[in-house]
Amino acid sequence: MTTGGPASGTSMTVGDPLPDVERTVTQADINRYAEASGDRNPVHLDPVAAAASVFGTRVAHGMMVAAMISQSLTEAFGAAWIDSGRLKIRFKAPVKPGETVVSSGKVTGLHRDGDGTRADCQVGVSTKEGEAVITGTASVWVED
Amino acid sequence: MDYSTLEPGQVVSRRTLTIDQQTVSSYVTAVADASRPWGEEAADKTVPPTAVATLGFRCIIEDLTIPEGTVHAGQELEFERPTRVGESLTYEATIEQNSVRRGSRFVTVGMAVQDSIGRKVMAGKSLLMVPAG
């Protein structure tokens, strides 16, 4: 895959990495996302309620962390991701305030058809220590 | 809400929302998305596709009155066309599965989003693990 701009179908090869997106998640970030998304579940905001939850502490919204994957795919594929993207993910572990997580992925398959290519990708977010917090797959239809 | 009564095929939310710049700005700031300009800062005024999905998830949370302790276990998204700032989108959420396993209720909610002239914008599925009551 070329760097510095969205890929075309003919410029990709299987194994090409997706751009990494790294973020250290803070409670202030979580609070902002709660306001923006309307998801004010106490497990994200209330330290007392969160302490009694299955997580034992406040955690980031899954979709807030998943947005890092979309950011990576936007950098990799540009408008093709916005127009035709498919994403299937599982939330495997919570992200706690103060944790640094990285979205990464790679192209796992290229299926050429007519004047375009469907790029299949493995995507995910993990901690700096390597624990998976989101795993999944994505596909994008890219014109040649 | 009594989640045991939710049936596959049951529509649990239907709303029409206009995606304004304030919504886009708040979302982009919250997720720190610097992958490209979004909304009014972009020539094409495109809205982040995950912002469109997040608004749909908000409809589900509010209209299903999701209880404390619910865990968002999985998500599928399919984007069909970009959304521009100022567009009105109709969100419809439907129960796809509802079952109890190992003491937790698993509810899959499908989401279909159309623009003002009925074109498919996106579809999604949210897997929720709800404390079994």
Structure notes:
The complex is a heterodimer of chains A (144) and B (133). Chain A has 144 residues and is α+β, with helices and mostly antiparallel strands. Chain A is 29% helix and 33% strand. Chain A has helices at 27-37, 42-45, 47-51, 62-77, 79-84; strands at residues 21-24, 86-91, 100-113, 116-127, 132-143. In chain A, β3 and β4 (116-127) form a beta hairpin. The model of chain A has no long low-confidence stretch (mean pLDDT 93). With 133 residues, chain B is an alpha+beta fold. Chain B has one domain: Thiol Ester Dehydrase, Chain A. In chain B, a hairpin with a 2-residue loop joins β3 and β4. The A-B interface holds A 21, 23, 29, 32-33, 35-39, 41-43, 49, 53-54, 61-64, 66-68, 70-72, 74-75, 78-79, 81-91 and B 23, 26-27, 29-36, 46, 48-50, 53-54, 57-58, 61-62, 66, 68-82. β2 of chain A pairs antiparallel with β2 (71-79) of chain B, so a sheet runs across the interface.
What are the defining features of this structure?
A: alpha+beta; five-stranded antiparallel beta sheet; 29% helix; 33% strand; elongated; B: 133 residues; alpha+beta; Thiol Ester Dehydrase, Chain A; 5 strands; 20% helix
- Count of folded domains of chain B: 1
Mean pLDDT of chain B: 94
At the third CATH level, what is the topology name of chain B?
Thiol Ester Dehydrase, Chain A
The CATH class designation of chain B is Alpha Beta
CATH architecture classification name of chain B: Roll
What share of the residues of chain A lie within helices? Answer: 25-40%
Helical region count of chain B?
A: 2
Task: Spell out the helices and strands of chain B N to C.
Answer: EHHEEEE
Q: Give start-end ranges of low-pLDDT stretches of chain A.
A: none
Can you list the strand order of the major beta sheet of chain B? 1-3-4-5-2
The first-to-last residue Cα distance of chain A is 13 Å
- What's the helix-strand series of chain A? EHHHHHEEEE
Q: What's the rounded overall pLDDT mean of chain A?
A: 93
Strand content of chain B: 35-45%
Number of E strands of chain B: 5
Note poorly predicted spans of chain B: none
Side-by-side strand order of the widest sheet of chain A: 1-3-4-5-2
